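Researcher: Please predict.
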Amino acid sequence: MSRHRGFTLIELLVVIAIIALLLAILMPALQRVKKQARGVVCQSNLKNWGTIWAMYTDDNNGKFPIRTDSSGRWIDVLFDYYFRDDKIRCCPVATKIAYPQYPPGASGTLVIGGDAQTSWGRLTETAGRPAGTWGSYGVNGWIYVCGPDVLYGKSKADFWGSPNVNRGAQIPLFMDCWFWCGWPEHTDTPPNYDGERMAPDSDSMNRFCINRHENAINCIFLDYSIRRVGLKELWALRWNRSYNIAGVWTQAGGVRAEDWPEWMRGFKDY
């Protein structure tokens, strides 16, 4: 009569230990793959947004929207181009909406703004703005055509107005953002921590300086190219016509490691 030998307790513990070790080795790799996949989806979203912006400018004599203090926001004037596809509104890292109920009962940048893991919105319906708009991407406010009034006191000469400009691959158009727009200047200071919300339109680089893609964000440029942008690199891009790409927050401008907030010091320098 044959006898079947079972596993001993020690053998079972060894097998369990091996499985646990393999999981410990594989999990970081799986997490990296997951993050990379989210980055790919985000860039795919931005590719679709590039098509939307190109369609709008083609329909409007090669010009971006005319922006005034109270009208011309992209979320309003581009609505007919993007409202049919909710999937492209948010980076897969930031699908949670800051104020998900509608009507929100709240307004203002600091209330309805998101962060690295949260999209902005939902917005109140004003001045033609569609009810409940939300998203996790924002526009470089300097791309607009400046309206007849002086927009927020900014110089008309600094606006791009059209995608048909030289070195468009260095000019941000649309990207990861905790708000729907921003007006960066080369003197803007970096946020003291990831997700810090500064006063409206003050130091607005903080709206794009969010750690959404491993020390970077995704961005589409005026030539409709798309790439990953390091957070410190944001200060080295051409945001407006008089922007100094060798400003105080760049290596060319003499920034030191200790000048950056602690959470950014280990990021790649530019």
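Model: The chain has a mean pLDDT of 88.
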